[in-house]
Amino acid sequence: MKKTKFLKLTFIIAAFALILTACGNSSNQPGSEPVANEEVNEANEERLTVEITDAHGTVTVPVNPKNVVALDNRTFETLADWGIELAAVPKGVMSSDSPYVADESVQDIGNHREPNLEIIAAVEPELVIVGQRFASFYDDIKALVPNAAVIDLNIDVSETASTPGENLVNGLKSSTIALGQIFDKNEEANKLVAEFEQAIEEAKMAYNGKDTVMSVIVSGGDIGFSAPHTGRVWGPMYDIFGWVSSLEVDGSTSDHQGDDISVEAIAQSNPDWIFVLDRDAAVSSTTDAVPAQDVIDNSPALKNTKAVIEGQIVYAPADTYTNESIQTYLELFENIAKALAK
Predict the structure, then answer these.
(1) Cα 86 to Cα 68, 101, 120, 321, distances in angstroms
(2) What is the pTM of this model?
(3) pLDDT tens digits for 39-60?
(4) 257-306 pLDDT per residue, tens
(5) Assign residue 92 a region: left if phi > 0, alpha if psi is -120 to 50, beta otherwise?
(6) Sequence-ordered list of residues with C-beta below 8 angstroms from that of 107, at least 6 positions apart, any chain
(7) Closest by CA position to 207, among listed 238, 234, 243
(8) How far is it, in rounded angstroms, from Cα 110 to Cα 190?
(9) Are 163 and 239 in contact (CB under 8 A)?
(10) Cα(282)–Cα(97) distance, rounded to whole angstroms?
């Protein structure tokens, strides 16, 4: 009797063990793939997103997006400094020393005049950063990549701004903060904005409020007038720092080569300071261009101006025309403060 019970118990235990073994091996049967715990957790984990206010409204953007396309030249240096990988950029309108230009794995969509927008669709981006030169392609890009977040970090994003200077400052700050939120670089973004604000205050304090300023753009060996308030790069700074212009011209524009005002007229205004943007220095196709400093130094009309005689000339960083990042303006404002404080 006891032996029979023992045999029955042994049979039950053996059968139970076989069932457990079969269950344990079920995932390895043909047509069945093992699923790692990490993959299950990742699949069940909700993707983090952030709400970004851009030039068109509010956009939901994934945090640390994959396959990012950046088209706004105010963003390239910031993204490079943060080690952000990009899938495609417009290499023809970027600073030649940008790491993205040299990286062959980064696709080139061309310049803003004839861009190859199909490349944007081909890289299947989660995020496209539009802005400035490419702002007019916003709708086309949204149609090409309907599943991607498309943001336009244009400078004119502040409804309360009343001057070009406020637009510039507010735009650079807000776009930097937005990039920090998107790429989980909030600490770095806040530090950059704080340094930018400090540089503005130092440049304000360094200006005596009465010296006259002449801002110019040198391109193709010619000197163009960069008008107060409207002129490219320099114009907004008259608002920011309260500069007194040595010359007022009706009908001035923000033309990328400056307005066509004679060098003699510039010289007759006899500015205390001359601020210079070298457009050609930033354009890789103009390797034989005459440096702006040579153009200014060798101008017969300017040689008797107070600015030239006293060496009161400030040059924007060489890549400013193609790299209008917050870092560029930070460097420029620091250089202005140092020069004016002497």
Answers:
(1) 5, 11, 11, 21
(2) 0.81
(3) 444 443 577 999 999 989 999 9
(4) 444 578 999 999 999 999 999 988 876 454 567 889 999 999 999 999 99
(5) alpha
(6) 87, 88, 89, 119, 122, 123
(7) 243
(8) 32
(9) yes
(10) 10
